[in-house]
Design goal:
2 copies of one chain form a homodimer. With about 350 residues, the first copy, chain A, is of the alpha+beta class. Chain A has 12 helices and 9 strands. In chain A, the strands form 2 sheets. Chain A has a 7-stranded antiparallel beta sheet. A two-stranded antiparallel ribbon of chain A has the order 7-8.
Amino acid sequence: MTRNQSVLVTPSATNNSIPRDSRQRAKEFVLALQDEICNGLEALDGKAKFHQDIWQRAEGGEGRTRVIREGRVFEQGGVNFSEVWGDTLPPAILTQRPEAAGHGFYATGTSMVLHPRNPYVPTVHLNYRYFEAGPIWWFGGGADLTPYYAFTEDAVHFHQTLKNACDQHHPEYYPTYKRWCDEYFYLRHRQEQRGIGGIFFDYQDAHGNLYAGSEPDSPAAIYSQKVGRINHSWEDVFAMVQSCGKAFLPAYAPIVERRQDTEYSDRQRQFQLYRRGRYVEFNLVYDRGTIFGLQTNGRAESILMSLPPLTRWEYGYQPEPGSPEAQLTKVFLQPQDWVNASINAEYNI
Amino acid sequence: MTRNQSVLVTPSATNNSIPRDSRQRAKEFVLALQDEICNGLEALDGKAKFHQDIWQRAEGGEGRTRVIREGRVFEQGGVNFSEVWGDTLPPAILTQRPEAAGHGFYATGTSMVLHPRNPYVPTVHLNYRYFEAGPIWWFGGGADLTPYYAFTEDAVHFHQTLKNACDQHHPEYYPTYKRWCDEYFYLRHRQEQRGIGGIFFDYQDAHGNLYAGSEPDSPAAIYSQKVGRINHSWEDVFAMVQSCGKAFLPAYAPIVERRQDTEYSDRQRQFQLYRRGRYVEFNLVYDRGTIFGLQTNGRAESILMSLPPLTRWEYGYQPEPGSPEAQLTKVFLQPQDWVNASINAEYNI
């Protein structure tokens, strides 16, 4: 059965079944993805190398955390792998997935955040994870871009590359996951998107609900209801996740190459440090992976490796109207149909 | 019906009765405290003045936010006053106080965080607040100190001054609230105290439970159980809160005066920026006031005014064993009986 045929198959009595070696395959995938991405990022940076820490989790599990710092491109960043298990999932997940109550769990995944030095190079985030708990399993994850000075061509490229990966598997994956990403990476208290988005999904299992978020009236939820249920098996979802993971470097690397030598001054640097504050706010207040990690006695250094090297907060900061800094919030931190974007975002830089 | 008359509590012949002008008196106290502290801090700084913003909350309420920056002593800091009301308290509080369910609420308070420039001057926090919701009312708050380079004499002075204020009202206030402060300002994911503590309390009403936290086996809970219930009326609690509020400047100002001219180099500055990251982690992950504000559509700029001007995160940082930086975590960020402290904390600075 090929990937493209798999969505047509409707063995509804069996599509909840999972392969015997599901955990092993998921784990090998995320390990290989971590390797591939680290190699790609080191090549991009050209100077710094990742430093690796192997760690054990007392309650069960292990990980390898890789950190890059003081590079040519990357000021600081980390790519984490972990495999953890335990007696019970944390309450926040059990509320979403009550079928898992009373069962042990297994989770494996890779996550990364890269904070470049040049304010014209966007910060990027990726996470793919796999869960099993009693009778249920699911995949989650995605990738999204957080520019400080944004360019339409970069946003289009990033989204188009992820869309191509999704479209190999089902035409409704990208439109749902793109909207879900906008919903998820949203700072309610600031009424701002975290960045220009990308794709995000969670609880992707055989039930066929492409959207499994908590906002029933969101654009992602409404879109997903129109699509209806899709039969997809463990193999289908896993294949989609693999394609998305492999699309990361092609989505991000060309943007780094295009922006890394753009000259900047203290104005751009100060704005970058200020905007990094929003990244901290999102990760500590809203991020599901961070909260899961902290709730499960995860390794704090690895979980919080996503935080930036240098950040600042300034009470009441308002960018000058019409400036690139104002454009960021007004134009780019609003949900946009990026693959069809025609916004003129030329800046005098 | 005016705002202040809107909760007409029937005096039940018990000490649960509250004065008719309870809201007005609580509000006038926190407004006067904000004034007194801002004046004192400007005098201490000698250069920068507070900038004030008056704001309205769409759902009901108003505030005045005062920010100081780029001062001689204070790199950035804010002293906030707010008075807010609404139809329902957020879920986190209703879980603690189910009697308030189905009732509107009123809350007023002042809160402040000051981030000094010199790493030898500690960051300080204060908050006092008053709530009414249907049949119940309570006071909460406290003050605590977060040094970067800690000195026993400063810790003793800060605690002794707060203890004296508490002791004017009841000998069991300080021992309970001191332990509760240690319990509250704790970063579970780091297994570290935020600082050297001070006093903290919440839900102080006529029920006489000095401890009303959520950790039944904590030192604060165990101590409070030994003490048993205490008869204290609205007037008693309010008087205690006023004494604590007025003790703030005498507790903090002498420490600033003693440390403000200590010479420091990039080493101390870098450690200060690193440790400020812990402050951010606490405020965004655990702080009740921050979470209340964000959950009630509070004014984000005012709520997050507590965050530092410049902060950094560094993966895997470990101070050199035996250094002052290592002493901070090993000695000072552990709960200590500070008023009786005799720890030798001499540093070569």
